[in-house]
């Protein structure tokens, strides 16, 4: 009888230990962690699977920067030019086109979400546009790419420029077009193709700062 009680106690302690470890693992993900951004985008995928255009748009809305945030990242001169392109073109186009695009892409099987840090330490996943957005910042921030892809594939729909600032995730998207050297500042012609990661190893910017819970981006 004593042996049975002792064995039962060990089982209960083991269960409690595992439950405690699981709880700690869940609690370990902070809002500023890229894993949290991945979870947020999984919810967007679920709305896209339900073909909920309004729901997808509502879930995307928090990622748009404010003018004050853009100027905080790039200063008054570069930031003001970048803001005009971002607000009038990038954000406006995404609000019109992103819900249907995401629903179509998810319907084609792009249901997996991968979040990756970009920057000089990751040349294979960093485009020249990513590097430009990092180089022109007043203070380097940790920046990430969100990619929707099929479970068995790595490539897919890429969304650029995610940063954790002001206690929440924002995205620059293709702001690089409106920074010095950007195609939208040089010509009125639209881009033909998305930029590919810079595998040639152009001169890198400083490594971006670690993301913290403090206001950063």
- Class of secondary structure makeup: alpha+beta
Element order: H for helix, E for strand: HHHHEHEEEH
Global Rg? 21 Å
The overall average pLDDT, rounded, is: 80
- According to DSSP, the number of beta strands is 4
Through-space gap between termini: 62 Å
Shape category: globular
Number of domains: 1
Strand content: 5-15%
As a percent range, the share of helical residues equals 40-55%
Major sheet strand order:
1-2-3-4
Helical element count? Answer: 6
Defining key terms:
217 residues; alpha+beta; four-stranded antiparallel beta sheet; 6 helices; 4 strands; 47% helix; globular; disordered N terminus; disordered C terminus
List the helices and strands and how they pair.
Elements: H1 2-27, H2 34-49, H3 53-60, H4 67-107, E1 112-118, H5 128-135, E2 143-149, E3 156-165, E4 168-171, H6 183-186
Antiparallel strand pairs: 1-2, 2-3, 3-4
Helix pairs in contact: 2-3, 2-4, 3-4
């Amino acid at each position: 009888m004593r042996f049975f009680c002792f064995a039962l106690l060990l089982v209960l302690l083991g269960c409690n230990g595992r439950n405690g470890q699981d709880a700690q693992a869940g609690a370990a993900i902070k809002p500023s962690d890229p894993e949290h951004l991945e979870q947020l985008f999984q919810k967007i995928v679920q709305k896209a699977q339900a073909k909920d255009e309004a729901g997808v748009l509502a879930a995307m809305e928090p990622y748009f920067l404010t003018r004050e945030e853009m100027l905080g990242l790039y200063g008054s001169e570069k930031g003001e030019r970048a803001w005009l392109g971002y607000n009038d073109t990038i954000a406006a186009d995404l609000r019109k086109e992103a819900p249907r695009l995401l629903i179509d892409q998810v319907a084609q099987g792009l249901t997996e979400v991968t979040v990756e840090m970009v920057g000089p330490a990751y040349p294979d996943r960093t485009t020249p546009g990513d590097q430009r957005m990092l180089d022109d910042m007043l203070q380097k921030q940790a920046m990430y790419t969100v990619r929707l892809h099929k479970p068995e594939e790595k490539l897919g729909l890429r969304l650029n420029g995610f940063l954790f600032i002001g206690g929440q995730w924002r995205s620059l998207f293709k702001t690089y077009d409106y920074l010095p050297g950007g195609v939208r500042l040089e010509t009125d012609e639209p881009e033909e193709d998305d930029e590919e990661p810079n595998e040639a190893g152009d001169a890198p910017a400083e490594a971006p700062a670690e993301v913290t819970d403090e206001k950063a981006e």
